[in-house]
Design brief:
Structural class of chain A: alpha+beta
Radius of gyration of chain A: 20 Å
CATH class of chain A: Alpha Beta
Largest sheet of chain A: 7 strands, mixed
Distance between the termini of chain B: 17 Å
Number of domains of chain B: 1
CATH class of chain B: Alpha Beta
Largest sheet of chain B: 5 strands, parallel
CATH architecture of chain B: 3-Layer(aba) Sandwich
CATH topology of chain B: Rossmann fold
Strand order of the largest sheet of chain B: 2-1-3-4-5
Number of domains of chain A: 1
Strand content of chain A: 15-25%
CATH superfamily of chain B: Response regulator
Shape of chain B: globular
Number of helices of chain A: 6
Structural class of chain B: alpha/beta
Oligomer: heterodimer
Order of helices and strands of chain B: EHEHEHEHEH
Mean pLDDT of chain A: 82
CATH topology of chain A: Heat Shock Protein 90
Helix content of chain A: 40-55%
Chain lengths: 256, 122
């Protein structure tokens, strides 16, 4: 049986005849995964653009409008991934300046930002705030946005139409938790264990959820680590998974 | 009577664009998982399958194995539509009964229509 992993050409970048290797194995895997994850949305944009120019399709104005929206939303989603990758690259080289951050404000912004995409996908999103007081978190504002955006994008991609993504914020024993739950296909226990063990350690070219390289999650996990935060995963009996981001609390304001 | 095309594509935007490209000539059913594809094959007479390889519950090759293991779906023609089309070994694809491999990166509605029309005639 043909293994799809072979198509990614793992191990192709070998050093031969004293040639310098551009990337080590892990960088090469990340690069291959990034290329794959970006080829898919670019292909969608390309096909939508080609469809708009196809005279045989006899598109209505509403269809044209919808297709333009979808091109824009697909481009935005890809740009978020690229932005996350850029952060992941730069945070491994720079010390991050963390500050007290109101996670509710960030999540409200993200929810607003994702509303057009969730509508186009026939899904709904909601933000649920804990009744208990949520402390400020110690984080980097842009990077936290990038992580939560990646998690929301991942949830929307794996959700079936007419389903729901829930964003929850609550206090934890030592900090703040942001959880993103989807209703995607249920993860088998073996796949769940594998994904959990690999979370943040490597890109999973053909991971537990086969359609995804796991790059978005890899990026989210790397960025979480750079802020001394932690990304965790839990599966549900019925369907879907929850990704939880555990952030440190900021006590700065309590001294005022 | 229009022929039935089953589209198995986990990207909703891409899948609906394929439906739109084929709607004048074919009746289409769009599903996003391999499992849902197999269920549709139980329910309807399918004349052609358009298959993406990277699905959320399985990969397309696993689907092809499953498809070819049942006597009533052994001969349903399959067209693969993938971003890794150039890396697929044509001979192995032919063994799976794949009649055409389309590269998503350069696909146009006209090429898709032409291919499905040809395959549906086989």
């Amino acid at each position: 049986m043909l293994h799809l992993g072979e198509m990614f050409g793992a191990g192709v970048a070998e050093v031969t005849g004293g040639q310098k290797q551009l990337f080590d194995d892990s960088q090469f895997a990340s690069l291959s995964a990034a290329a794959h994850d970006l080829k898919a949305p670019l292909s969608t944009i390309q096909f939508l653009a080609a469809s708009l120019r196809d005279s045989e399709l006899q598109l209505t104005d509403a269809e044209r409008e919808q297709m333009l929206w979808r091109m824009q939303l697909t481009a935005e989603s890809s740009l978020k991934l690229v932005e996350g990758l850029t952060y992941a690259y730069s945070t491994s080289r720079l010390a991050l300046e963390l500050e007290p951050v109101n996670v509710a404000h960030i999540c409200e912004d993200i929810l607003h930002e994702f509303t057009p995409l969730s509508r186009q996908l026939g899904q709904t999103m909601e933000l649920k705030l804990s009744r208990r007081m949520v402390p400020l978190a110690l984080a980097h504002h842009s990077i936290l946005r990038s992580i939560v955006s990646n998690l929301c994008d991942n949830a929307l991609k794996h959700n079936p139409p007419e389903s729901h993504v829930q964003l929850r914020i609550g206090p934890a024993k030592r900090g703040v938790i942001i959880a993103v739950r989807d209703n995607g296909p249920q993860l088998r226990i073996a796949d769940f264990k594998r994904l959990k063990a690999r979370l943040g350690k490597e890109v999973n070219p053909l991971g537990a959820r086969v359609g995804s390289s796991g790059l978005g999650l890899f990026v989210a996990s790397q960025l979480a680590g750079a802020m001394d935060a932690r990304l965790d995963l839990s599966r549900h009996q019925t369907d879907g998974v929850t990704f939880s981001l555990h952030l440190q609390p900021s006590y700065q304001l309590s001294f005022l | 009577m229009k022929k039935n095309v089953l589209i198995i594509e986990d990207d909703l935007f891409f899948g609906q664009s394929i439906e739109r490209a084929l709607r004048a000539d074919f009746t289409t059913v769009l599903v996003r998982t391999a499992q849902a594809g197999l269920e549709q094959l139980d329910k309807h007479r399918i004349d052609v399958i358009v298959l993406d390889l990277f699905l959320s519950d399985a990969n397309g090759i696993q689907f092809l194995h499953e498809l070819r293991s049942y006597s009533d779906t052994q001969t349903v023609p399959v067209v693969i539509c993938s971003t890794v089309a150039e890396r697929l070994p044509r001979e192995q694809m032919a063994n799976y009964g794949v009649l055409s491999v389309l590269d998503k990166k350069t696909l146009t509605p006209a090429l898709l229509r032409r291919t499905i029309r040809e395959v549906a005639l086989v």
